[in-house]
Design brief:
Two copies of one chain form a homodimer.
Chain A (H helix, E strand, L loop, with lengths): L1 E8 L3 E8 L4 E8 L6 H15 L5 E9 L2 E3 L3 E4 L6 E4 H9 L3 E5 H11 L9 E6 L3 E7 L2 E3 L28 H5 L1 H13 L6 H8 L5 H9 L3 H25 L3 E5 L1 H21 L9 E4 L6 H14 L2
Parallel strand pairs in A: 1-4, 4-8, 9-12, 12-13
Antiparallel strand pairs in A: 1-2, 2-3, 5-6, 6-7, 9-10, 10-11
Helix pairs in contact in A: 3-10, 5-8, 7-9, 8-9
Chain lengths: ~325, ~325
């Protein structure tokens, strides 16, 4: 059997799947990343996942992978926020050890590439992915290929949507991420609770721990908790503004919304985002763009990695 | 001699230049567009320019052209604001009549393509052009090729830089163009004059007629006219914000600023734009981008058209 491996190298776990040539899942393997034990340990964990997968009788056609951080030349992690990769050429190491083709992308980029490939919108060539999670990430697909600039492109969470607005973790002000990420949403909720506002979210936040769960936000939103509705509407307002700007810039065929918040309550939020985007889109450009919600959930990374290496193999 | 023709089809005049293979200007021809006399007349005027140029002893390798408006498939003008082109397939007509290859792009895109090619920055592959004129236009070059989406991409003048800000001609609110175009600048000046503010610009505007000249703005700015400095600083503030967002989105190699205002006073404005962009750019992304002012002035269109057809000829 000929097959590909898709890897999703995350801050806490490494997920690997062996696929046959046509993308059928053959075998799945998961290991802890052990990022706190250093680079060599992380490398070992990656090897262990691959070794386990190739125990199958497979002729390996290539390995694709996604990792958080800035990726250069589809193989080197310049910097990763939560894994000790620094100018780390993973491509060289994997290609030498396993004598196969390897391609690496940023995790959000790779996941969105997978979402597009599995969306059934093959005629779409220019696609923007908007990922609403702990932060707000993005992916840009131009003419069917991931666009990464010098490795750091797609930081749409740091588009300025309110020039003198809230400070953002990036050092800037008024970034989309400051309003529409889970971090930004939670910060606003905390500030309002500190001011004495009543909300069910207080309870949920005590249960959830450090970061509020998307499912908790959904519950409170469905119960029409006033603060939750207000904060989520604000998040959608700014997402809509950024979406409008992105349509004016890219005149794209498709926009895919993913990430934890969109996965759990995207069907409720997308109409609000679209409505606001419409206010800011040039006449004519809105008609030719489709909006979709991501569908692959936790498997988007490995499926995207499979599609990425497969697309390279046909080069 | 083998040669190319570059055409710049404007709302008031059509400029054509015959170039030899290496881009040396051989002959130049200019005719009025006569847009108010209808489509057939405009076509005739285009033919007259080409006919005059091919009176030279030349083996024509192709014709490139730029036109205002939304361009599809590098040959059809879907819509043009000031020429009566509506879903007009200019490519078919020219290729049949002159038995040569023809390629058409949006005028700002084509001019910026020329600016890049003549900038001496050949190693730059991903380039954003920001055109500050009557409106604010843009051009996106990805991996050395013009990116146009479905024909309408690059409308960076309609990025939202202030969500509930000034109304814009596009029907949106808070677009970059509403603040940083000559139209936006003039509108603000007029409103301030109507409120009784003293300014040298009042005189200049009476002299200039309908649209204030860039040279008048420059004179008042150099004389430290308070209103002029204020309005130009506001224009640069918003240009800087949009530039920061664009760097975060594209991680580009080069940003070129062109258009009437940048040509006349760009050396004074660019530092203000850069300073503001710096506030909003992700750490690391600013180091790898160069800022340039356009250099070709009125010839950018024809030179860009030459480079565009030449780049296609090598396909």
């Amino acid at each position: 059997m000929k097959g590909y491996i898709g890897l999703d190298i995350g801050g806490t776990k490494i997920l690997g799947v062996l696929y046959d040539k046509d993308g059928k899942e053959i075998k799945k393997e998961k290991k802890k990343t052990k990022a706190d034990e250093g680079l060599d340990k992380v490398k070992d964990q990656i090897f262990k996942v691959i070794d386990k997968l190739i125990e199958e009788d497979v002729e390996l056609l290539g390995i694709g992978a996604g990792s958080p951080g800035i990726i250069k030349d589809e193989g080197t992690v310049v910097f990763s926020p939560n894994i000790p990769f620094r100018d780390f050429n993973l491509k060289e190491i994997i290609e030498e050890k396993y004598d196969t083709k390897f391609v690496l992308g940023n995790d959000v980029n790779v996941a969105m590439f997978g979402e597009w490939k599995e969306s059934g919108k093959k005629e779409a060539k220019n696609i923007i992915g908007i990922f609403v999670g702990t932060g707000v990430g993005g992916a840009i697909i131009i003419d069917g290929n991931l666009y990464t600039g010098r490795g750091g492109a797609g930081e749409i969470g740091h588009m300025v949507v309110n020039p003198e607005g809230a400070f953002c973790g990036c050092h800037g002000k008024g970034c989309l991420e400051a309003y529409s990420s889970k971090t930004g949403i939670q910060k606003e909720i905390k500030e309002q609770i500190a001011k004495g506002r009543k909300t069910d979210l207080k309870e949920y936040m005590e249960e959830d721990g450090a970061v509020i769960k998307s499912s908790s936000l959904e519950k409170a939103y469905d119960d029409e908790d006033e603060l939750c509705v207000e904060v989520m509407e604000r998040a959608c307002y700014y997402l809509g503004i950024a979406t409008g700007s992105l349509i004016n810039i890219f005149n794209p065929d498709l926009i895919i919304f993913g990430g934890g918040i969109m996965e759990s309550m995207g069907n409720k939020l997308l109409p609000l985002i679209e409505k606001e985007a419409r206010r800011h889109t040039m006449p004519g450009l809105l008609d030719s763009v489709d909006f979709e919600l991501s569908k692959l959930s936790d498997d988007a990374g490995v499926i995207g990695a499979y599609h990425l290496i497969k697309s390279k193999d046909n080069d």
